Each structure stands twice: as structure tokens, then as C-alpha cells.
Prior knowledge:
The protein is 15% helix and 42% strand. It is an alpha+beta fold. It has one domain: Sandwich (Jelly Rolls). Strands 1, 2, 3, 4, 5, 6, 7, 8, 9 and 10 form a ten-stranded antiparallel beta sheet that branches. Helix 1 (2-17) runs antiparallel to helix 2 (173-185). One calcium ion is lined by residues 61, 93, 95-96, 155-156, 158-159.
Amino acid sequence: MKGTDVIGITVSLVLAAGPASAAVLENLALGRPVSVVSGSTSGASLSTLTDGVFRPAGTHWQTGTVWWSGTSVMLQVDLNGATELSGAIVQADNNDTYRLWYRDLVTGNYAELWTVAAVGGAGMRTRPDPSDNTEIHLFAAPVITDTIRIAAIGGDGAYSLSEVQVWGIVPAPGAAAVLIAAGGIGRGRRRTA
Ligand SMILES: [Ca+2]
Ligand SMILES: [Ca+2]
């Protein structure tokens, strides 16, 4: 099958282009547009989720945040093209569980990326490290995507977010084409979520 060899070559190029350990990661969600996929939110503008600004730790969950009730709300961040993501930082109400998904460029489906667990304290708390807004939760493996989604999946029914960051390597002009090819050439292959 001629496709198999092409896929192997493409993956090698992507890995060769950006070893995460040597590269500087940047917040690729910074300034990117946030939209509502389902449900509706109250409070601050959706743009505050990707403005790079955290609320002071312990801020009341409805003060300067995007908040809602129930688990019907799904939010989406457009990353402006295919990019490789290595990790994420989320600031959310402390006593709930949230989840990030990424759009799989091969299948078009959304796959789980990170389940953001509840933490101690009260009010707005950053994950993975409530005491350090710069610590990045690294995914098990980098993913290539152009869109992420986030939702509350459980807790006390009162949910809020104040910052959603996804960290990756800014593609060099030539590397962007390779990333897109990696998603396109594999069309039809299935990945396990
Ligand atoms: Ca913010
Ligand atoms: Ca809550």
C-alpha cells in the first residue's frame, strides 16, 4: 500500500522538525478567538479566556470570569491553522472537573486531550499547579491540530473559566506545510482517542 510509506516519512519529518525538549514552547491560544459550540455563558467576554491573563488565585468564581450552570456548555478555540501542541494550562473554578479535546485532523473528530481535575482551595485555581501559573501540563504525546474545545464535565453544577492556554512550537514557515501534510496524508487512518 503506497500510503503507508508516505505516512512514515511524514511523521519522521515532523519529529525531526521539532524535538520538544530543545524547542521553546509558546502559548498558541494567545489572542485566538473563542466561540460557543453549545449552551451559553455569562460574565466576562469569551476573549478573556485567551488573553494570557490569570485571575488572582482564589478569585470568586463569578468575578471577572466566564461562568455557566450545568454541563451543556462547550467552548472552542480556533488556533489559526495546524499546529503541534505539547501541553496546556487552564484556570478554572477549583471544585470541578473540566476536559480539553483537540480536533483530529485525520478523522475530523474531537479526541480527549486532558482531563483537568478539581483541586483544593476555593474559587479560581490554575491547573496543573495552583501555585504556579507558568507550569505546563505536558500531554502524553504532542498532537497536531487546529482547534481545541473545553467543557466542564462534572462538579457542583456551577462552572467558570478564566484562562485556557495550549503550548506548542510555533511552526517555521516551511514546517507549517509539513504539519498540514501530516494531517492530510493520513486521511482515512483511525487513531484511538
Ligand atoms: Ca484570562
Ligand atoms: Ca464549581
